[in-house]
Amino acid sequence: MDVFKTPGAISWSELMTTDPQGAAAFYGQLFGWQSKNMDMGTGAYHVQSVGDSMIGGIMGMPPGSPPGMPPTWALYVTVANVEETIAQCEKLGGKVCMPAMDIPGVGRMAVIADPQGATLNIMAYSSPA
Fold it and tell me: What's the pTM value of the predicted model, to 2 decimals?
């Protein structure tokens, strides 16, 4: 299964933290993850890999994060169409926390919440993922 092309698959994990370098070192020692730094325009993004498979990323807290926001892991679920998924989410009682936006070279994403308030990132990947 290609998680970047399969709607409903968990395709990426991402850590937002106050110490991305320290976190990359910690998880590298804990799980053997390899880390490769990429400049995303807002600072270094540490892509984590197991062997040849990229599995997630580690980044600093995004600009505009609430003061005191603790470091947190987030999941991405692959969708065929972000706007259609947002509409279905709202129809089912969920809400949009961050509207759809394009990530150049990656795809289109948004952040949604279920009726209980749990958040989830959704992503329609551009080809190739």
Answer: 0.86
Mean pLDDT, residues 82-100 taken together: 97
The answer on pLDDT for 43 being more than 60 is yes
Token pair recorded at residue 8: 């409903």
Which of 80, 89, 65, 94 lies closest to 123, judged by CA? Answer: 80
Confidence bin at 129 (pLDDT 50/70/90): very low
**Is 80 exceeded by the pLDDT of residue 15?**
yes
Cα dist. 54→33, 36, 40, 57, 96 in Å? 9, 10, 16, 8, 27
